[in-house]
Amino acid sequence: MPDNISSVTDSLRAGNRAVVWGIAAIATILAVAAGLLFFALPDANAFNARVERIFVQNDALTGAGEIRLLEVLAQSGTAFGEVLSSYRVIIFILLVFATALLIAALVFLLLIVGLNRRMSEIQRAGIEVQRLRILRSENAVMLNDMAFTLTPAAIETLAVLAEARMDDDILTGAQIEATISGRPEPDCDEAAGATRIKRLRDALGNQLVAELLVRNISRKGYTLAVAKDAIRVD
Q: Tag placement on the chain: N or C end, fewer CB within 10 Å?
C-alpha cells in the first residue's frame, strides 16, 4: 500500500510539473513572438524622420508651396504614427488573449485526460467481480448484482472455468474442449476451446465485463479473474 501511495503521489507531482512547464513554454513562446513582432514593426516617427531628412538634404525647398507640402507630410506622418501605436496596442491585447486561451486549453486538456483516467479506474473498480454464482438449471450467472442469461454451452464453459479456478488451475483450449465434450485431450483442438471462450464472452455481451471475468494468460491458457472463495456453482 505505501508503494501504491508513493506511485500515485509521484504521478501527481509529475502531472503538476508538466502543467507548470507547459504553461511556461506557452508563455515563453508567445513572449518571444511578441518581441520579434514589435521589433519588426516600424517606429511611429519613422515617417516624420524620413520627411524631415528629405527637406534637410534639399535646401532649395524654401518656397511657400514646399513648406506647405512639408506641413501636410508631417501631419500625415503624425496620423500614421497614431495608427501604428493603436496597432501595437491591438496586437498586444490579441497576444495576451491568445496566451490566456492556450493556457486555458492546456489546463482543460490535462483535466479531461485526468478525469478520463479516473473514470476508467472507477468503472473498472465498480464492476470488479466480488461474487460469481452459476445457476446451471436456469442457464444464468450472477455477477455481483448483475444477472446474465446464457446459452447452455456458455454456462458449461463458464462452469468448467469456475471449477478450474477453485482448484487454482489454468486450462488450455484443448483441456476446456476435452472436459466439456468428454473426449481425450489429445483428440481435442485448441481452437475449439478458444471458440467456446469467444462464444462465452459474446454471450456476456458487455466487453468490459467479459475481459475482466475471463482472462487469457499468454502461453498458459484461460482462467477466471475471480477469487475462488467468491465462486459458487449450483
A: N
* Backbone φ/ψ region at 131: left (φ over 0), alpha (ψ -120 to 50), beta: beta
* All three cell numbers of 215: 482472462
Convert the pLDDT of each residue in 86-130 to its tens digit.
777 787 788 788 778 877 887 787 777 777 776 666 555 555 677
Closest to 200 in 3D by CA, of 162, 153, 234? 153
Inter-CA distances, 72 with 46, 52, 56, 65, 165, Å: 16, 12, 16, 11, 97
Sign of CA dihedral 129, 130, 136, 141: negative
Could you tell me if 224 and 184 lie in one domain? yes
Phi/psi-derived region of residue 151, left when phi > 0, alpha when psi is between -120 and 50, beta in every other case? beta
More confident residue, 208 or 158: 158
- Within 8 A by CB and 6+ apart from 229, the residues are none
CB atoms within 10 A of CB 189: 11
Task: Pick the closest to residue 191 from 90, 230, 111, 199 (CA basis).
Answer: 199
- Residue ending a domain, among 105, 126, 147, is 126
Residues 6+ apart with CB under 8 A from 202: 210
Asked if 121 and 20 sit in the same domain, the reply is yes
Say whether 45 sits in a helix, a strand or coil. Answer: coil
